[in-house]
Write a structure and sequence with these properties.
Blueprint: E1 2-6, E2 9-16, H1 22-34, H2 41-62, E3 68-75, E4 78-85, H3 101-108, E5 111-117, E6 120-128
Antiparallel strand pairs: 1-2, 2-3, 3-4, 4-6, 5-6
Helix pairs in contact: 1-2, 2-3
């Protein structure tokens, strides 16, 4: 696990194995990072769970590596969650995938995106309204996928 304490926000990331049972652990990780009183907690937990389920289904079909990491950044009234994978990005387009994860993210968040490279794909979303301008910055966390 990596923890960054930055002015006005905290960023935490953790790797997970590709075992489907780890999806629940990832949801609990997001919930724990945000805490019970954070206004974005429940939505972030639901959306990260949907993204992980879609990614795992895709990995099983395409034979990709299912290792992934989840990163959470939080500030007052805002949260950003990122799923970092070691797979191709063909599951990340709402127009091309039959799954619900990316569809839900595109429907329920105004701020989300995908970043792809040879190493894998990152899908991020941001929830809430910052009470302090710039409380969650655009840009991905570097996340270590080694176990």
């Amino acid at each position: 696990m990596t923890i960054l304490n930055l002015p006005g926000r905290t960023a935490i990331s953790r790797p997970f194995s590709g075992d489907p049972s780890q999806a629940g652990a990832a949801r609990r990780f997001v919930a724990g990072c945000l805490g019970e009183s954070h206004p974005c907690r429940d939505d972030a937990v639901q959306l990260i769970g949907e993204l992980i389920a879609e990614f795992l289904r895709h990995s099983a079909v395409c034979g990709g590596r299912a290792h992934h990491a989840v990163a959470v950044q939080a500030g007052p009234g805002v949260a950003r969650a990122t799923l970092v994978t070691q797979a191709c990005g063909c599951w990340t387009s709402p127009d091309l995938t039959p799954g619900r994860g990316v569809h839900f993210v595109s429907l329920f968040t105004d701020r989300w995106g995908v970043s792809a490279s040879r190493a894998g794909v990152s899908v991020w979303f941001e929830l809430g309204q910052p009470t302090v301008p710039g409380s969650v910055k655009e840009g991905m966390l570097k996340t270590d996928l080694r176990h």
